[in-house]
């Protein structure tokens, strides 16, 4: 056995210690590199996780959605200006579209009342809550809970209706997880829309006829009141027509005035020939009597309460009221007949342009488009993050010191 000197042993010990430190630095370097690689791979995996989740969901989990579409137009029989498309063709044959009522039907289709009526014939919760449908698409899910309001909002995403600005027709689109369910729901919604239109027609007819009948009734009551007032006036004054009575009085005054003129002429002649004659007193009395009668007949016109002028005024006012009431009644009756004639024909019609068809292929979700969209958005976010990180690193103090 070789015995080493103390110097040799010291040198060997130093070399062993130096080798051990070098091996430890190498191990720490490998561990640091390995940790850095794991960190980078983990960060990259997290960065592209939205795209991976999208590929997983739309490729393996997302259920097929079938879309059944139908088109219709709400029209009326009023002729309006001609425009293009289907609406223009309908107007050429005397049928015009009604946009205000169309939006009313649109509002009904997406309303809670429509869902309630739709649920009477179809179990919508079972249709959209199938257990074989993915949890994010079926009802209820994480977003839409088991409440009526959430169900209404969920169904509004599955049932959509809008107006095509080019053709002027309304498009109804229904999404479901089976072709039959999509078509059945669309057909049922169109049937309910027709019932709603018929209800609107019935309300319009009833309102129009009710208003016209009320006008006729008011005109009748006014005419009856005018006739009652006129009859009361005649019974009170004991005359049929004050105008005729005034004509008689005027003729009487004219006759008396003529007689008075003759008497006055005789009186003047007697005063000229025989002023002391015995007949002069008689002629004087007749003249005074005629003057008194003429004064009395004239007073029948001028008296405020009992004069013929006031009675004629009252009579003319009552007769004018009667004539106005008669004309109003005639006009109201004509309006009633027109309202009834208008009520005999439907004012609004829901015309189906294309009935709901049975889809033979799922059109939703658009898997490739959704994946590419999420991947593009993910890439944009990564670029934004990288730019922000680079900018922060370039402007950090440690970076400047290291660069110097």
Structure description:
With 404 residues, the chain is an alpha+beta fold. It has three domains: 62 residues, no CATH class; 155 residues, 2-Layer Sandwich (Alpha-Beta Plaits); 128 residues. 71% of the residues lie in helices and 8% in strands. The chain starts with 5 loop residues before the first helix and ends with a helix. The C terminus is likely disordered.
In short:
With 404 residues, the protein is an alpha+beta fold. The protein has helices spanning 6-47, 49-61, 85-92, 99-109, 112-121, 124-127, 148-158, 179-237, 242-273, 279-302, 308-343, 367-394, 397-403, and strands at residues 66-76, 96-97, 159-163, 170-176, 348-354.
Topology:
Elements: H1 6-47, H2 49-61, E1 66-76, H3 85-92, E2 96-97, H4 99-109, H5 112-121, H6 124-127, H7 148-158, E3 159-163, E4 170-176, H8 179-237, H9 242-273, H10 279-302, H11 308-343, E5 348-354, H12 367-394, H13 397-403
Antiparallel strand pairs: 1-2, 1-4, 1-5, 3-4
Helix pairs in contact: 2-12, 4-8, 5-8, 8-11, 9-10, 9-11
């Amino acid at each position: 056995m070789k015995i080493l000197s103390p110097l040799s042993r010291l040198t060997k010990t130093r070399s062993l210690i130096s080798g051990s430190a070098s091996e430890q630095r190498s191990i720490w370097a490998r561990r640091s590199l390995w940790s850095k690689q794991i960190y980078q791979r983990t960060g990259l995996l997290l960065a592209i996780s939205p795209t991976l989740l999208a590929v997983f969901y739309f490729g393996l989990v997302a259920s097929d959605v079938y879309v059944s579409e139908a088109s219709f137009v709400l029209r009326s029989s009023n002729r309006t200006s001609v425009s293009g498309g289907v609406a223009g063709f309908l107007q050429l044959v005397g049928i015009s579209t009604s946009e205000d009522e169309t939006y009313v039907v649109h509002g009904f289709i997406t309303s809670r009342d429509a869902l309630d009526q739709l649920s009477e014939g179809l179990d919508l919760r079972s249709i959209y809550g199938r257990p074989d449908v993915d949890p994010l698409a079926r009802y209820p899910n994480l977003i839409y809970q088991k409440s009526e309001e959430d169900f209404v909002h969920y169904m509004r995403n599955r049932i959509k209706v809008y107006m095509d600005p080019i053709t002027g027709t309304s498009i109804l689109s229904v999404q479901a997880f089976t072709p039959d369910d999509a078509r059945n729901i669309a057909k049922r919604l169109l049937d309910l829309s027709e019932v709603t239109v018929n209800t609107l027609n019935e309300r319009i007819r009833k309102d129009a006829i009710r208003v016209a009948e009320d006008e006729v009734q008011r005109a009748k009551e006014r005419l009856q009141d005018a006739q009652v007032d006129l009859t009361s006036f005649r019974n009170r004054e004991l005359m049929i027509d004050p105008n005729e009575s005034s004509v008689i009085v005027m003729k009487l005054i004219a006759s008396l005035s003529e007689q008075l003129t003759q008497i006055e002429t005789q009186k003047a002649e007697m005063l000229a020939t025989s002023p002391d004659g015995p007949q002069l007193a008689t002629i004087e009395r007749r003249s005074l009597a005629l003057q008194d009668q003429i004064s009395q007949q004239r007073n029948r016109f001028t008296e405020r309460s009992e004069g013929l002028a006031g009675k004629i005024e009252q009579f003319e006012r009552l007769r004018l009221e009667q004539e106005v009431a008669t004309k109003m009644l005639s006009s109201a009756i004509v309006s009633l007949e027109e309202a009834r004639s208008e009520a005999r024909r439907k004012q609004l019609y829901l015309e189906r342009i294309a009935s709901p068809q049975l889809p033979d292929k799922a059109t939703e979700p658009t898997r490739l488009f959704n994946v590419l969209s999420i991947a593009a958005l993910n890439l944009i976010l990564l670029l934004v993050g990288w730019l922000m990180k680079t900018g922060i690193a370039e402007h950090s103090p440690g970076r400047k010191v290291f660069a110097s």
